[in-house]
Amino acid sequence: MCKEIESCCTPIAPPWEAPQVIPAQLRRVNNLIFRKIGQIARTNGVEAVTPMHGWIMEYLYRHSETPVFQRDIEREFSITRSTVTNILQLMERKGYITRRSVEQDARLKQLVLTEKGRQFHEDTMRALHQTDEYVASLLTEEENTELLRLLNKLYLGLK
Question: Phi and psi dihedrals of 21, rounded to 5?
Fold first, then answer.
């Protein structure tokens, strides 16, 4: 075998550290944030509520004066119908929400927080705010502003 072929066919040793590909790094950070949310949620007594349940309860709480339907949750959180269906069924079984028929269209079901859901919402929001404060404290105010600007730019570009 000639030297030229030998040198081009020699396997290159992998780098010691995986490349910092943006989606992979976002996923790692997301996993760590969810772990922190879980840790803080346990200290607030809301470990039974997943972060997504908390965000949906917050959305329902914020929109309590207007009818909210499953499609609104799908759009707001950019998740598929089947995923939302599973999440809402579990939330209903746990007593956080109810589905009410709408007079104009019996097929539509309005999503409404129960009293238990409202209480969990308050406790969950406290845990989410504590997590947000913790994560924000890891960066300067300018870094937080720039990070949010860039994340929003990615969100709008990928939407």
Answer: -80, 135
